[in-house]
Design a protein that fits this description.
The protein is built from 9 helices and 10 strands. The chain is of the alpha/beta class. Helix 6 links the parallel strand 7 (162-167) and strand 8 (197-201). It has helices at residues 19-33, 51-68, 86-94, 106-115, 145-159, 173-192, 209-220, 235-240, 243-251; strands at residues 8-12, 36-42, 74-79, 96-102, 120-123, 134-139, 162-167, 197-201, 224-228, 255-259. It has a 10-stranded mixed β-sheet, sandwiched between helices.
């Protein structure tokens, strides 16, 4: 099998001190999922950079990791493309299934997240390495919740993580029915895979379900919040920003995994 066919966990590095925690997080996820770790620098089309110097730094990163963990699959990659196109290139041409990025730079990656066929895991580089053992999962009325449930199951199965579901609460019949269907699907999936989980009924509707789950995750000491991204962009979103931006800002040191609700996601292969 060619190198391109090996699924990868991509880490977007910036050649700064923040790279360390992002790379360590990528290394942990790649180890859990038994995937290759790929360190990526994207200079973007508007940025001037020295590719020779950048490549040497990436190779130094790779050597340091190889010295510590001989035999671990690690690759490096330099790209020069717009951030909005970056996820699709990584997924289609390099078999990337998850992208790890600095949560402080969400604004730079926001368009990429919105168009990405693979999830983004945002890490605060100023925090300690997460164990990803306790994951809070908000569930609302959208069909895309099956994607976040699936990604939660990966962590539950491969990392023995506990999944805490916060279900949206609707007064109207349609909302209650759709949430109930999504909860049933997630529950069946977790039971089938023997994933530890708990289900709590929230007090907020689907509009505010993610924020209620975030508050719960913070108060309960969760290691990660898993969020289904926005389905549509409204004129107001261009002015005040998407809810994901507010969630990441409020999440502080907690890891946040954003799954695109508008795209079919690439699946993890065993």
């Amino acid at each position: 099998m060619s190198e391109k066919k090996i699924q990868k966990i991509a880490v977007l590095v910036s050649m700064t001190d923040s790279d360390k925690m992002l790379i360590l997080s990528g290394l942990k996820i790649a180890s859990l999922f038994n995937k290759e770790l790929c360190l990526i620098f994207n200079s973007a089309k508007t940025t001037k950079s020295n590719p020779v110097k950048i490549r040497q730094i990436l190779l130094d990163y790779k050597k340091a990791l190889k010295d510590e963990i001989p035999g671990f699959k690690i690759s490096v990659l330099i790209l020069n493309t717009s951030y909005s196109l970056l996820p699709e290139i990584l997924a289609d041409e390099y078999e990337t299934i998850l992208i790890i990025a600095d949560s402080n730079k969400y604004r730079k990656y926001s368009k990429a997240v919105y168009s990405s066929p693979v999830p983004f895991l945002f890490i605060n580089p100023g925090t300690k390495l997460s164990t990803f053992k306790k994951i809070t999962l908000p569930v609302d009325l959208r069909e895309g919740n099956s994607e976040t449930a699936l990604w939660s199951s990966y962590f539950g199965r491969l990392n023995n993580s506990e999944i805490i579901i916060i279900a949206a609460n609707h007064k109207e019949k349609y909302g209650r029915q759709q949430v109930a269907k999504n909860i049933a699907r997630a529950k069946n999936l977790f039971q089938k895979l023997s994933v530890r989980h708990k289900i709590f009924k929230g007090t907020k509707s689907s509009i505010y379900n993610h924020f209620e789950a975030l508050d719960f995750a913070i108060s309960s000491g969760s290691d990660m919040l898993m969020v289904l991204g926005s389905s549509t962009l409204t004129p107001l979103d261009y002015i005040v920003g998407l809810p994901e931006k507010k969630i990441l800002k409020r999440a502080g040191n907690m890891a946040v995994l954003l799954v695109n609700s508008r795209r079919d996601n690439y699946l993890l292969c065993n």
